[in-house]
Amino acid sequence: MLYTHATIITVDPSRRIITDGAIRVHGDLIADLGKTEELKRRYADDEEYDLTGRIIIPGLISTHVHTAQTLLRGAADDLELVSWLCERIWVLQGNFTEADGYAAARLSIGEMLKTGTTCFLESMFADRYGFDGLCRAVEESGIRGCLGKIVMDIAKYAQDDAWAMHPGLVEDREMSLLGTVKMWEKWNGKADDRIRVWFGARTPGGVSDNLYKEMTEISRTKGIPITMHCAEVRADRDFFASVSHTPMSYCDSVGLLSPSTVLVHMVHLDDSDIKLLSESGTHVAHCPTSNAKLASGICRVPDLQKAGVNIGLGTDGAPCNNSCDLIQEMKLAAIIHKSISYDPRAVPAESVLEMATINGAKALGLQDRIGSLEIGKKADFVAIDVRGIHSQPWFNPVSAVVYTATGRDVDVVVVDGKMVVKGGELLTMNEKEIIEEAVMRSREVVERAGLTEKVKGRWPQE
């Protein structure tokens, strides 16, 4: 198949952009790319799909997602993190069934595909949500999923005993750590290698030192990567201080710093933390919307970049973002750092597109397969329609994608060589069915949790 007449942002090592470009897909790989005229002459017998007026980018990679939480979109707005988590989100999630988890995963994946995300890192899927269902959803949809199953053995947040998890979410070593290993043995590499299983460790304070050390040892011996929330809010800093550490000195002490680890949020860091991150090759997932909405603070992205730390981009969960649209996340990631630094050159559009593509691929250990458009790499790409009145005119295609487009402009999505979105519509999933199931199950979860009145807005509804 030839995809023709598009502007192609390759994000290859030379960062070349091809005007009136074409991509040839053979099987699951990019077999060729270049000028449309040349590829049409070279492959005259190939079927052609015309993408005039579209910009093609590598498939977007979200390095931090909570797929279960999409069922709770808008159910915990305008709350700070600890009360948001302990009084609302954990209570709701503690009332999930496996069927709810599957419905939520399908809703998340459908939204991600329609808005251009072709690969995601699930951060912390609880046992009660049904990990098999999450894997089935990935398999059926055609997306790539790096799937973190929760690891924990302490049922509270940070150092305060009052911040307790809902009983329905509490897991022990056998269920969480050993359960993840079992799921890794069952699912890792399945769905034509689109599924990878990860450890999804809870935030420090939710995991004992011994369990962290056991997990990091298994990670090294079996090659199971790790993702973990870290230094998100001031309460996290207080926890680290209570054990005589900074965030990264603690992580280093239990073996978490590694090129196979993605640490999420990373808002409250010292200069010494940034140095340790740089030296260890540990990756960071930046989630600006979540951090802003929960008033957690702003990650020191320019400082991390100067230190050579690899930074990916994530949308986090729907209750703290209300969207799985990574294109919208790119815009905020580009803008917010300019605002606080008083420097309009801070974190330019090109850097943000790298975060959402090749940097994300590096964080997931998949940079040789995805993250850029190069011959021999997997055919994962997105065509964004820029013909609309809200997109015209444009001069720089990277600017048009980062500052103007949203996920609603996504026209075509290809993953592993297969078209999964065409004309903005899902091809591998029944969108109407997904929505109806999600709406029904979201209401049931809220009712079981006894939070029907609390999830309503502040203004009266008749």
TrEMBL record:
Keywords, in A-Z order: Hydrolase, Metal-binding, Zinc
One Pfam family linked to the record: Amidohydro_1
Signal peptide: none
Entries under Gene3D superfamilies matching the protein: Metal-dependent hydrolases, Urease, subunit C, domain 1
SUPFAM superfamilies, sorted: Composite domain of metallo-dependent hydrolases, Metallo-dependent hydrolases
The organism's place on the tree of life at top rank: Eukaryota
Gene Ontology molecular function: deaminase activity; hydrolase activity, acting on carbon-nitrogen (but not peptide) bonds, in cyclic amidines; metal ion binding
Entry-linked InterPro entries: Amidohydro-rel, Metal-dep_hydrolase_composite, Metal_Hydrolase, MTA/SAH_deaminase
Stretches assigned to the Amidohydrolase-related domain: 55-420
Name listed for the protein in its UniProt record: Amidohydrolase-related domain-containing protein
